[in-house]
Amino acid sequence: MAERRKHIPVMLNEVLSSLKPQAGEVYVDATFGYGGYTEAILEAASCKVIALDRDPNVKVRANEFKNRYGERFEFRAGRFGDFADLVHEKIGGAVFDVGVSSMQLDDAERGFSFAKEAELDMRMSCEGESAKDIVNFCGEKELADILYQYGEERKSRQIAARIVEQRRRKKIETTTELAEIVYSVIHRKPGDIDPATRTFQALRIAVNDELGELERGLKGAALRLISGGRLVVVDFHSLEDRIVKNYFKENGGKKVRISKYAPELAQDDSLFSEVSKVIVPTAEECKVNPRARSAKLRFAVRR
Predict the structure, then answer these.
(1) pLDDT tens profile 28-61
(2) Is 202 in the same domain as 117?
């Protein structure tokens, strides 16, 4: 029970009302994690859910779902950026909960959190280049660019210079070592967001190619939607949200006017017949689950 309480699905009610699960349809949970959305979808309608995740550590939880739901649940290991290759079925909808999962943050050994000492890792798939590799081997300019572009860190050059200075003396191994380097440039102030937040976000995005994965995942999901199928995305920072907002806007159809006296009509060659405005969590949810505070939800309906 304690484990279940730790992983509260963000904006669950809003996700369900946007996805509108229907009996007999197939849905994709593109970011399975602990399975909160998957469970809610399967309980909401007599449908099937295909769950995707690149993290090998979720397989135990996926096996629990398979034992419970049988043929109504299927897990496929892989990145959601490869959505079109992983899912060939036509689907009634897909949901993305973008970014690091609660399971990954809560596991200190994964190295995602500056609040817990661990090896500087941050690999969602547990393979490939790690955050430790980036901070110890990237050139100073490339490192500064990563911190600025993916973390929107205004003091990226100073932090990058301090990292390079430190690694000349000793290889940077742990999350707390990196955090202390950031604090030497930006001092912590009570009540403010921790200064290491943006640096850790930037490295995590770079390690996992999160923005590229999101762009590819949205396109892949849209290809598999049936007419009236719904694509729902929950994101947590401006870089992700900009990608989702622009993709929906660009594919939502431009309004055209036949004459100045006629009403505007949507072009019928667009992917989506409906694109939502941004939806944010309630104040009540933010009190119960602080991780929901920065969440934004958008959805689109396939033409």
Answers:
(1) 999 999 999 999 999 999 999 999 999 998 999 9
(2) yes
